[in-house]
Amino acid sequence: MTHVVTDNCRGCRYTDCVASCPVACFHVNEVRVYIDPAVCIDCSACIPACPVHAIFEEFDLADDQQHWIRINAEAAQRYPVIRTRLAPLDGADARRQQLGL
Amino acid sequence: MSIPGTEGQPLRVAIVGSGPGGFYAAEALLESGLQVEVDLIERLPVPFGLVRFGVAPDHAKLKSVTAVFTQIAEDPRLRFFGNVELGRDVSVRQLGALYHAVIVATGAAGDRRLGIAGEHLPGVHAAGDFVGWYNGRPECADIQFDLDQEVAVVIGQGNVAIDVCRILASPIDALRRTDIAAHALDALARSRVREIHLVGRRGPVQAKFTPKELRELGALPGWQPRVDPGALVLNDASQAELAMPGFVHAPRNLDILRGFAQAPVEDGRRPLHLHFHRAPVALSGRSRIERIELEAQVLSGEAGAQSATPTGERLSLPAGLVLRSVGYRGTPLPGLPFDLVRGALPHRDGRIVDTGGTVLRGWYATGWIKRGPTGVIGTNRADSVDTVAGLLADLAQLDTLKAGRAGLLAQLSADRRKVIDFAGWRAIAQAEAERGRAGGKPAEKFVRVDDMLEAAVVAGAPRSWERA
Ligand SMILES: Cc1cc2nc3c(=O)[nH]c(=O)nc-3n(C[C@H](O)[C@H](O)[C@H](O)COP(=O)(O)OP(=O)(O)OC[C@H]3O[C@@H](n4cnc5c(N)ncnc54)[C@H](O)[C@@H]3O)c2cc1C
Ligand code: SF4
Ligand code: SF4
């Protein structure tokens, strides 16, 4: 089991998830974050922290979202780890409104 | 006079309490880019707070967060002062005089009571004591839980209540491979509990469980969670709450509960009844607890602010063991203000304030003693970062010229206090791992403070009270 960041994490990068992660398992690129399944301890602290509901327990992923498991695992290898909150990207609030959250 | 945190004048901070709040505050200070000297003071000889004494033994993956804490503790600028209690071995006044700043992270492990008749009866306990008992907390090691009883009632609607139900219903072989305390393993192996009731005042949407914990109840071999489908019918406000930000886990919880409610009852499986909209009103029995009286509740009010009121309809259940998990609260620390209503320290943005709202210069709070008993391990990380940000913003206002670590060590050694440093803890941990190996457990915890101290000394590691 692990936790997975899905499509809603795009162009916002609030990174409130990162601030509440006890084990530094988030990795970041220019637009979004990923969770390293080998490091995540399944504490679920990041789920309520994300303002756009982008994070799910692997178990709760819908069938058409399963591909995010592999994407997170691979991207976590490629991008650097992030341990502290970043400034949200420009347009993050607009994206949040667009999602109706 | 230079500001603390610069060359030749390290910022000297004492953090009181070595649970998640304390460790993450230490991490934030160590990463601040300033010259710092961080002393982590812990009343027990062993670190990690509720990660050691709260988190359930069968949740080993969660407990592995201690690897992160260990990394923080390995920073040479940090020193662990185990077996040193604020209020017993060092006072608020003394710490304030020794350090530029003190961060209080003492947690909130005290329990709230139900306040109903019969609560004093033998067989009625705080769930927190049961948790402390199975996790080897020294204060709880001698409590007797009567597991000859057939019916256990757990009161509460959070993950702690679920942990307690799960441990009561776990196959003993699954627990044998954990670091559960030996006395608890023995008692649970002989347990005769064959029926469990989990009772909560509010509805399935307001319950504070996380889906992961709830789902685990459905995976207990030999047990079957049972839910009355009627309890899952939502009023309009609860329906609206499903989409509200404070209720992220509710939709998943509801799905899981519906699954439980729809499953056909299997005779061979012991029942784990999940009751919603029911509150205990009386406990009774001749010389010990025998029955619990529940009163039906109805929710009313606006979405997000519903409250439960009794309907008058009652249900009486036999009960041989009652464990209440209706909230935790912090304990006041002599010399510091306290908010008795919240059961936590009064603060503004992490700065401790007195009853008049005036900031106590140099005193900060983080973790459960700041926020009250809510949030998981990671919640304390974001919280400690906030508190430390406040501290760093106050640097220019802090008193200068503090003796810090050298002063504390001098005082503790004058008092001949045994101080356990991190090497001492490693010796304890190693001894516990060795004790566990024989029985195939990851660790066999010491449950007496004296045994912990002895393990630290025998391994030759600390003797820090002599070295100091
Ligand atoms: C039963 C239970 C199960 C839990 N399970 C989970 C879980 O599965 N997953 C999860 O993410 N979260 C879980 N939590 C929540 C998590 O444990 C807390 O969020 C977290 O431990 C709070 O951290 P803290 O540092 O504020 O307090 P604590 O962890 O309580 O640490 C406080 C520390 O301060 C020390 N201390 C107290 N008074 C003094 C004093 N006067 N002087 C010196 N030291 C002192 C204590 O000994 C303790 O080590 C659980 C909580 C409980 C109660
Ligand atoms: S908080 Fe949510 S949206 Fe923001 S970076 Fe984290 S996962 Fe992405
Ligand atoms: S579940 Fe916990 S450990 Fe895993 S990514 Fe989220 S916060 Fe980090």
UniProtKB/TrEMBL annotation, chain A:
Its cofactor is [4Fe-4S] cluster; [3Fe-4S] cluster. Transmembrane segments: none annotated. Residues 1-30, 31-60 form the 4Fe-4S ferredoxin-type domain. One of its GO terms (molecular function) is metal ion binding. Pfam families: DUF3470, Fer4. The keyword Iron applies. Keywords: 3Fe-4S, 4Fe-4S, Electron transport, Iron, Iron-sulfur, Metal-binding, Repeat, Transport. InterPro entries: 4Fe4S_Fe-S-bd, 4Fe4S_Fe_S_CS, 7Fe_ferredoxin, Fd_C, RnfB_subfamily. The keyword Repeat applies. It comes from the Bacteria. Ferredoxins are iron-sulfur proteins that transfer electrons in a wide variety of metabolic reactions. This is Ferredoxin. It comes from Methyloversatilis universalis (strain ATCC BAA-1314 / DSM 25237 / JCM 13912 / CCUG 52030 / FAM5). The lineage of its organism: Bacteria, Pseudomonadati, Pseudomonadota, Betaproteobacteria, Nitrosomonadales.
TrEMBL record, chain B:
Keywords: FAD, Flavoprotein, NADP, Oxidoreductase. The keyword NADP applies. Pfam families: Pyr_redox_2 (PF07992). It comes from the Bacteria. Residues 12-170 form the FAD/NAD(P)-binding domain. One of its GO terms (molecular function) is oxidoreductase activity. Coiled coil: none annotated. Its cofactor is FAD. NADP(+) binds at residues 157-160, 201-202, 213, 375. FAD binds at residues 42, 50, 86, 368, 375-377. This is NADPH-ferredoxin reductase fprA. It comes from Methyloversatilis universalis (strain ATCC BAA-1314 / DSM 25237 / JCM 13912 / CCUG 52030 / FAM5).
